[in-house]
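Morning. Coffee machine broken again, so started the prediction first thing and wrote up yesterday's gels while waiting. Chain of 118 residues, entered below exactly as on the submission form.
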Amino acid sequence: MIAEAQFNRATLDCMTSLRRHIKRSLGVTVRLGDPDAVESMIGLSKDCPFADIRELGSRLAEMVAPPAPVAEDSMVAQGAIAARQYQAPAQRSSSTAAEPAPAASSGSVRIYRGQVIR
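Came back before lunch.
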């Protein structure tokens, strides 16, 4: 079953294209409304002798794969401000290349209705 956050236009296009290829090449009809449609299409594409169907199936599997969980060990025992400022390592490396490191602020930090105000 696809999570609602993973279902977008690109996922739907990949599903319909894979469905058409499977029906044309293998003669198997998969209904997109079925709860296990994605899993059955991915399973059929893994065992398929045609490279284009295998490639579409692997692309669909990547699209619907659950995102990697963020390690929460580093978030334990941090305050609310530190938790809001935390960035994942992948995001940190891309943001440092695009922007220079922010200067340390000497001013006070306030929290107003859940928003950090500097």
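The helical segments are 9-26, 37-46, 51-64, 80-85, 89-98. Going to sketch it on the whiteboard this afternoon.
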